[in-house]
């Protein structure tokens, strides 16, 4: 392993670049607060680690890892500021929004690896339980808890806030929701406090502190040192439970999957349309089809590329060109649907193209897959907005603009959504649409 | 209604009336006034049962367990015959020979279970026995369904199961049962018979203290009891009622036990001074534990719902068990104790401890949660409405979907999949080797009671998790593309490589911290066990390195070393990148070793370094007494691991961030220049190229052409050019002027019109189309 090669030449420039980028970020006012919190976090973590070694408590160590995770989340926040400032470079042609996702993924995975390490350590401790000194245990707990909560509530950490909203609920959240539902059944007044979805980070901080308090109590009362190990395992399991859905969510983004919310809308499109195998005839107006497809998918996918295949064109091409290999890859199940043509005009006259009434609708052949099926991208010219949820039915052009094309201007939260959500759509969906492949 | 819609379709209201015979029609709770007398009766019976069990614990100190069970069953049978007039032979239909065999089996199983139960009682005392064993079937069944099936029934049931497990663990770990610790010192003390001796040795073999063994035994007996009850349900219908079955089965078991008891009483001298003084306690035990409990249970289960029965039954019995656990030896309860020969002897056996109280609380909670009726009504899928307007649900869908593969077949198929391809096969073999070594180490560590070995074994297991992840990634990367994973699963390998890299960084970090701590305060080491273990680990890891680096070189040979990662190769293609990297790489499968395999390889390498470090530091310590060598070695290793991981993480990050693949940069540039020269092409925009997985380089490009060009020809040409440049997964969007007109028609808004007119202008006036890469 010639590992040393990495640092041979780019070392200085690497740190120089890092410093430069750091200055860029630090120029922003908002990042000062984060830097301040990061500094406090470092001191706090240092003290906590010291107390961990002095108390010899592994539960406190597991809790300290949550503080370290906070540090990572602060870094992610910084990265998201940096990403906002950067333009796409030729090499990173999609821009750097993915860095945010990667940072979220890395920090959640690191937290889980830390938890795994805790599990291993506690398995060893079950064999030989060392003595725990409770001296700094409670102090450490409350320092960590108050710091964590303070960070969580005072810093608006957009990437993590978004991911924790969008990811599926962790088991901790589910149980708390279940408990609080039954509690609200007894005391209905509490419903406004307990029923909304709990922030998973606050939840795990509170639960970890609770476990540590129990540990402290039992050790003080009865010298049950094994409780420490047990609560370390509990905290590690809770960390797993909290982080796992988020890392799955961000990992799916990194894997370029079709995001779930887009899938639903694509399905709706298919349902509305009824699925048929369609080829464009030679005389179909390719550009118009392209325009309509783009127009429909534009709202879902911000970076869209649509490729159109023509049956009559491809058949000779199968014999010669390099396209052949590409075409042969197609399987049937990605065939793009086509709404029935009847009633196109009368149902929705407002939204049809100006060009359209003059020219006859493009001809399609239904249910005629042919011998070598070449599924073709195609949506017909009926331009009803297809279930975006925001507006249905007869929508004038201007309002359609608001849903989709105006996305970049909507605001900070929406901008973040573009960062995290539309990324996979860009990479995943448009290819699913644009170039069906097995 | 059911008949009308066939078996798997139930009308809504009908579904809800499940449970006991007397249950109401709806989910509404029927006013409990009707039940209150049964509930009171049930509570009282459970209380008396607790008394009886405490009594029988006292009895079991004097009487041999087999004799005890024999007497119990004998009197039970006589009670049936004499008092309750069951007339099992004369009434009802006659019993066939086949049924007699079944009854015989039933009797044997019943004997074994009661033997386990009372043996557990002698081991861990009445309080813990009551807590562990007195769970109704419904609780245990829903516990097992939560643990072993996916359809548990919501978070509440999961919580209940977790509480149950916590309670058992509390009993196992946090319960300082003083007397039993004492008894564990001489487990061979006073065993009366071969049977108890056998059970004792079995528990001693497990290596746990006696009362812990009793806890495990009781849990086992509980599961057996539930299975036994479920299995005997059909038999009891065949025979004609559960009471009749009980009577017959007990009769058979009395006959079975009879010879044994005779042999026992002949061979061993009895510890009982006078059987006469035992009549009273035996009567109470038989009446409370066997007869009353059986009858009240059967009455209540007929009159009330089973779940309600379980809920109201468990609470009093646990509470009274706790109370008696505290006060049984106290003078207050002397009146209750029929066998008061050991009066006022301040006994310390099986006293109440904190762990028991906690576990009792958890048991009560879990029994409460698990016995509550599950809301399965939500699980059915609505399939429509009946003509009367009642909703129809389909409950069978679940059962069909969950038809699981048989386990051996599943294992066989996944093994076949694993062995199909080179990467996964190597990881799998190495994983097996590693696991083998780990278990040998663990086993030897347990045998010699060496903590160092055991903790090293845990460490190896920890490392194996990385291998397991690599194996899964190698398997999954071959899955077919789905709707959601529209490009296929190839990217999983990169993600797994990234996670493995993070894993190694965490390991390096921990080793670093540990060694810094040891540098400051070097501990004394005991080195005599270290060398053989680390040599063994070294050998295993060297095998792994050979296997993986072989694959590494092989792949490099195949792909002519085009990859960026060639800096860590020992092959002769070190110079491949600069010399002949670009020319050959197009058709082949892309870069040599994928990120996943690199991660696994680095992991093995790190382990090897660790073993070497241990050996070196041991030698240094033994030869020169340099205790500082150990932390220095680990410091060095930590830095080495970290440095070796950095390139992997960097590469994986680049791929995950959709960077233009560095090794294709130049060719793509050339290709884009070529595209410029295509006839009829005005310009292009948004060229995106990225590596999707080890073998797939994907790309998208938008191309503007003049309106007289055939789109498909352009697509073909562009695809051909970029395919030559290495992009094997391309999407081309061909745009003409008409497209922008359509777009502006479709979505008019100020910003869009602005953007689109800009585009159109660029199409018109930007003929040379210089997109600078």
UniProtKB/TrEMBL annotation, chain A:
Source organism, top-level taxon: Eukaryota
Places the protein is found: Golgi apparatus, trans-Golgi network membrane
InterPro entries found in the cross-reference section: Cation_efflux_TM, Cation_efflux_TMD_sf, CDF_SLC30A
Role: Has probably no intrinsic transporter activity but together with SLC30A5 forms a functional zinc ion:proton antiporter heterodimer, mediating zinc entry into the lumen of organelles along the secretory pathway. As part of that zinc ion:proton antiporter, contributes to zinc ion homeostasis within the early secretory pathway and regulates the activation and folding of enzymes like alkaline phosphatases and enzymes involved in phosphatidylinositol glycan anchor biosynthesis.
Membrane among keywords: yes
Lineage: Eukaryota, Metazoa, Chordata, Craniata, Vertebrata
Regions that span the bilayer: 32-51, 63-84, 96-117, 137-155, 201-219, 225-244
Main location: Golgi
Keywords tagged on the record: Golgi apparatus, Ion transport, Membrane, Transmembrane, Transmembrane helix, Transport, Zinc, Zinc transport
Protein name according to UniProt: Zinc transporter 6
Segments forming domain Cation efflux protein transmembrane: 35-255
MF terms (GO), sorted A to Z: zinc ion transmembrane transporter activity
Disordered: region residues: 340-370, 419-438
SUBUNIT field: Heterodimer with SLC30A5; form a functional zinc ion transmembrane transporter.
Protein topology in the membrane: Multi-pass membrane protein
Family, as annotated: Belongs to the cation diffusion facilitator (CDF) transporter (TC 2.A.4) family. SLC30A subfamily.
Gene name linked to the record: SLC30A6
Species of origin: Odobenus rosmarus divergens (Pacific walrus)
Any one GO cellular component localisation term in the record: Golgi apparatus
UniProtKB/TrEMBL annotation, chain B:
TM spans (from-to): 65-85, 106-123, 129-149, 156-174, 194-224, 245-263, 275-297, 309-330, 350-370, 427-446, 458-476, 497-517, 529-548, 600-621, 627-649
Pfam families associated with the record: Cation_efflux
Disordered: region residues: 559-589
Gene Ontology molecular function, alphabetical: antiporter activity; metal ion binding; zinc ion transmembrane transporter activity
Membrane-protein topology: Multi-pass membrane protein
Family according to the record: Belongs to the cation diffusion facilitator (CDF) transporter (TC 2.A.4) family. SLC30A subfamily.
Job of this protein: Functions as a zinc transporter.
Protein name: Zinc transporter
Organism: Odobenus rosmarus divergens (Pacific walrus)
């Amino acid at each position: 392993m010639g590992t040393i090669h990495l640092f041979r030449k780019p070392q200085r420039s690497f740190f120089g670049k890092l410093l430069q980028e750091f200055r860029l970020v630090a120029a922003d006012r908002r990042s000062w607060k984060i830097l301040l919190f990061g500094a406090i976090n470092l001191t706090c973590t240092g003290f906590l680690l010291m107390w961990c070694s002095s108390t010899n408590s592994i539960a406190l160590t597991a809790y300290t890892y949550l503080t370290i995770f906070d540090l990572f989340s602060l870094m992610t926040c910084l990265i998201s500021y940096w990403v906002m400032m950067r333009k796409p470079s030729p090499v990173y042609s999609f821009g750097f929004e993915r860095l945010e996702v990667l940072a979220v993924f890395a920090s959640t995975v690191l937290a889980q690896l830390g938890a795994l390490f805790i599990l291993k350590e506690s398995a060893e401790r079950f064999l030989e339980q060392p003595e725990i000194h409770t001296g700094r245990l409670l102090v450490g707990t409350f320092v960590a808890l108050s710091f964590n909560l303070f960070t969580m509530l005072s810093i608006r950490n957009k990437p993590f806030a978004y991911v924790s909203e969008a990811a599926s609920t962790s088991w901790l959240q589910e149980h708390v929701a279940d408990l609080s539902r039954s509690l609200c059944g007894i005391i209905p007044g509490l419903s406004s406090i307990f029923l909304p979805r709990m922030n998973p980070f606050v939840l795990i901080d509170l639960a970890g502190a609770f476990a540590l308090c129990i540990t402290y109590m039992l050790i003080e009362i009865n010298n049950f040192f094994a409780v420490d190990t047990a609560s370390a395992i509990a905290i590690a399991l809770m960390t797993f439970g909290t982080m796992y859905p988020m890392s799955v969510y961000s990992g799916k983004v990194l894997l370029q999957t079709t995001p779930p919310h887009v899938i639903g809308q694509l399905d709706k499109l298919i349902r509305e349309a009824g699925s048929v195998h369609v080829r464009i005839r030679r005389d179909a107006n390719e550009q118009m089809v392209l325009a309509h497809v783009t127009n429909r998918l534009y709202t879902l996918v911000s970076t869209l590329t649509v490729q159109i295949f023509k049956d009559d064109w491809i058949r000779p091409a199968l014999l010669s060109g390099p396209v052949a290999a590409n075409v042969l890859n197609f399987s049937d199940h990605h065939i793009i649907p086509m709404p029935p043509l009847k009633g196109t005009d009368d149902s929705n006259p407002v939204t049809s193209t100006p060009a359209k009434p003059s020219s006859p609708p493009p001809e399609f052949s239904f249910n005629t897959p042919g011998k070598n099926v070449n599924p073709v991208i195609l949506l017909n010219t009926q331009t009803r907005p297809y279930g975006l949820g925001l507006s249905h039915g007869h929508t004038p052009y201007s309002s359609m603009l608001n849903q989709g094309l105006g996305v970049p201007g909507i605001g900070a939260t929406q901008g973040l959504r573009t960062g995290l959500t539309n990324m996979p759509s860009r990479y995943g969906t448009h290819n699913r649409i644009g170039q069906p492949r097995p | 209604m059911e008949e009308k819609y066939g078996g798997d379709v139930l009308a809504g209201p009908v579904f809800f009336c499940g449970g006991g015979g007397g249950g109401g029609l709806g989910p509404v709770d029927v006013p409990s006034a009707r039940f209150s007398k049964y509930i009171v009766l049930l509570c009282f019976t459970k209380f008396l049962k607790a008394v009886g069990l405490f009594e029988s614990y006292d009895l079991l100190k004097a009487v041999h367990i087999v004799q005890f069970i024999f007497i119990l069953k004998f009197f039970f049978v006589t009670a049936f015959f004499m008092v309750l007039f069951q007339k099992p032979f004369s009434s009802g239909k006659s019993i066939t020979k086949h049924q007699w065999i079944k009854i015989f089996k039933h009797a044997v199983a019943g004997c074994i279970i009661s033997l386990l139960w009372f043996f557990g009682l002698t081991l861990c005392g009445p309080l813990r026995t009551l807590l562990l064993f007195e769970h109704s079937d419904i609780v245990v069944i829903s516990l097992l369904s939560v643990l072993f099936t996916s359809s548990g029934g919501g978070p509440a049931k999961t919580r209940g199961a977790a509480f149950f497990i916590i309670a058992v663990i509390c009993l196992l770990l946090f319960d300082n049962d003083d007397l039993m610790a004492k008894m564990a010192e001489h487990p061979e003390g006073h065993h009366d018979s071969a049977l108890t001796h056998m059970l004792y040795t079995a528990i001693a073999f497990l290596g746990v203290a006696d009362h812990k063994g009793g806890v495990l035994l009781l849990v086992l007996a509980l599961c057996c009891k539930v299975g036994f009850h479920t299995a005997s349900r059909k038999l009891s219908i065949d025979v004609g009622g559960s009471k009749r079955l009980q009577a017959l089965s007990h009769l058979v078991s009395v006959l079975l036990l009879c010879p044994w008891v005779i042999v026992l009483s002949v061979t061993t001298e009895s510890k009982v001074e006078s059987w006469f003084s035992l009549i009273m306690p035996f009567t109470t035990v038989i009446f409370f534990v066997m007869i009353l409990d059986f009858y009240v249970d059967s009455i209540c289960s007929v009159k009330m719902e089973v779940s309600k029965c379980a809920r109201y039954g468990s609470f009093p019995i646990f509470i009274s068990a706790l109370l008696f656990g505290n006060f049984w030896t106290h003078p207050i309860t002397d009146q209750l104790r029929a066998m008061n020969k050991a009066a006022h002897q301040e006994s310390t056996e099986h006293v109440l401890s904190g762990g028991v109280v906690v576990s009792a609380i958890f048991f009560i909670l879990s029994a409460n949660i698990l016995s509550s009726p599950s809301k399965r009504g939500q699980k059915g899928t609505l399939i429509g409405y009946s003509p009367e307007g009642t909703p129809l649900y389909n409950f069978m869908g679940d059962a069909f979907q969950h038809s699981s593969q048989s386990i051996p077949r599943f294992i066989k198929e996944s093994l076949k999949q694993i062995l199909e391809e080179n990467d996964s096969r190597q990881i799998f073999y190495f994983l097996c080797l590693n696991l083998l070594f780990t278990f040998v180490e663990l086993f030897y560590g347990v045998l010699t009671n060496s903590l160092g070995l055991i903790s090293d074994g845990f460490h190896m297991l920890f490392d194996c998790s990385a291998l397991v992840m690599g194996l899964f990634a190698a398997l999954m990367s071959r899955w077919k593309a789905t709707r959601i994973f529209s490009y296929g699963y190839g990217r999983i390998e990169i993600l797994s490589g990234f996670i493995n890299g993070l894993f190694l960084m965490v390991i390096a970090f921990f080793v670093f911290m540990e060694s810094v701590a040891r540098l400051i305060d070097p501990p004394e080491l005991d080195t005599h066990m270290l060398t053989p273990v680390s040599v063994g680990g070294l050998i295993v890891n060297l095998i792994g390195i050979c296997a993986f680096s072989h694959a590494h070189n092989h792949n490099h040979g195949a792909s002519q070393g085009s990859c960026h990662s060639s800096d860590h190769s020992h092959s002769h293609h070190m110079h491949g990148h600069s010399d002949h990297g670009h020319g050959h790489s197009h058709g082949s499968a892309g870069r040599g070793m994928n990120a996943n395999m690199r991660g696994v390889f680095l992991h093995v390498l790190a382990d090897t370094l660790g073993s070497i470090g241990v050996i070196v530091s041991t030698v240094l310590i033994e030869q020169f007494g340099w205790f500082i060598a150990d932390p220095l070695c680990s410091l060095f290793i930590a830095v080495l691991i970290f440095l070796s991981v950095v390139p992997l993480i960097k590469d994986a990050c680049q791929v995950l961030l959709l960077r233009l693949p560095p090794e294709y940069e130049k060719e793509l540039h050339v290709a884009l220049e070529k595209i410029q020269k295509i006839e009829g092409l005005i310009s292009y925009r948004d060229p995106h190229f990225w590596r999707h997985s080890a073998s797939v380089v994907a790309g998208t490009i938008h191309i503007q052409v003049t309106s007289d060009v055939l789109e498909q020809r352009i697509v073909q040409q562009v695809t051909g050019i970029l395919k030559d440049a290495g992009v094997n997964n391309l999407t081309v969007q061909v745009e003409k002027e008409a497209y922008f007109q359509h777009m502006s028609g479709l979505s008019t808004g100020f910003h869009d019109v602005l953007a689109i007119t800009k585009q159109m202008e660029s199409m018109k006036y930007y003929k040379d189309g210089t997109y600078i890469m």
